[in-house]
What does this fold into?
Amino acid sequence: MRGAQKTAKGVSLYSRYVNRPAGRILAAAAYRAGLTPNQVTLISAAFSFAGVAALALVRPSWGLAAAVWAALAVGFALDSADGQLARLRKESSPAGEWLDHVVDAAKIAALHAAVLISFHRFFDLPGPGWLLVPLGFQSAALLIFTGGLLADKLKPRGAAAAGAPAPPPSRLRAVALLPVDYGVFCSVFLLLGSERVFLAAYTALFVVHVLFLVAFMAKWFRELTAIRPV
It folds into this structure.
């Protein structure tokens, strides 16, 4: 399973030391159970959307906080497991990658929509303008996700291999990326038992995502602009 890992470059400490090792265990279990990577992707979606549904339909409490976090965290670990399983079984395919990304995009959109519904149904907000926070967060998160995917796909595949060996992944960068790691974001739902604390933490992460979005967009556009057409 260690040989079925992606590179650690551009990955936060949470994904590197928590989510990927958890996904490795789940991928091994799925391999022994005879599951396909696409089946693991769908199981991941089932956990994630169960958490989304609970968030939208149930009044916030500490019990709900634990349940939502657990469902989202397991779904995220399974999201890592499907790719590891595909590489282990040598079954990586465009269709599997497409399904994985579609589920990820739907999960991001639905999760922030569920926060909006919960805010509207259950929260005593300071004003109606706070309902715009989940909408803004949803847009920022989706732009970071899709912008990163597109930037990676549009870069020439052989560019990095032509020069010297790639340097080891930066630990400082891995720490800096923690605020925009999906696993860290899932942890904010552990605060659902307190409306004020959750609202403050969710809003703070929204602001951080907007700042990272601006930085990422500038970086990706600069890198793609530097590519000379063949």
Notes: The CA atoms of residues 125 and 215 lie 30 Å apart. The chain has one domain: 2-225. The radius of gyration is 19 Å. Confidence is low (pLDDT under 50) at residues 159-164.
